[in-house]
Amino acid sequence: MFRLVLWATLLLPAYLTAQNPLLSVTDAGTVGLAGAGVGTGGLSALWLNPAGLASGRGLSFGASVIQPYGLSELRLVTGGVLYRGFGLQLAAQGFGDYRANRFGVVYGRSVSANWRIGGALVALRQSVRGYPAQTRFLPAIGVQFSATERLVCGLQLTKPAAAGDLPFLGTVGLKYQLSERVNLLVDEVYDGFRGLSTRLGLCYAPVRQVELRLGFRTAPGQITFGATYLLGGEMMVAAAGAQHPLLGTTAGLGIRRESTE
Hints:
Elements: H1 2-16, H2 28-31, H3 45-48, E1 60-67, E2 76-83, E3 86-95, E4 98-110, E5 115-128, E6 134-146, E7 151-158, E8 169-177, E9 182-191, E10 195-207, E11 210-217, E12 222-232, E13 235-244, E14 248-257
Antiparallel strand pairs: 1-2, 1-14, 2-3, 3-4, 4-5, 5-6, 6-7, 7-8, 8-9, 9-10, 10-11, 11-12, 12-13, 13-14
Protein name: PorV/PorQ family protein
């Protein structure tokens, strides 16, 4: 009950006005890394940096369910598919008479051995029964640069088209392979409404089939955690959580097929 009151008083106004809840979306696996990953490639890049799609040549797909703060009313469902640098992303959330949907087309390609570029066009649609539905478009561009075999730097910029009530978003960061089993992700995020925030993620693979994840983010301050497990072949499941000091725990569960081509 306490969290529901907090939702109604602190979060609901944002959902019904400027801050579209699907403005920044990730999959369940990325939740465990505090949303960091502008330097990553493959299916995770579908949500984080279109340039990262350049590394995905085979067919990859995945779906996730994320429940913020233990409230079923906020449950978020996401899905995506990637093939030969092209990607589609879908996300949906709804409770009562409120609905929010996200549809995106994403493309990434390599322009040299070390440079990758990409772009995305995303449509956000919100509707509340009794009011006109609103649709906004978000064009985005992304760049990645492989500085060394272990270090990848990334940049993504998103500017809402003709939507003054949505903020400009910019992310710059890196992915650094500390060892064969450990990767470090560091992102600095600029939100035109909320200012700067930092996201840190750490991946550790004790064995080939398992990867453990830990993260931290500011604005809002959260500790995140998660794990992935390789079922066999290219199928993988992911579970993750994020702990907010006031609102409680966000949980996520997902499954994906990540092509190795």
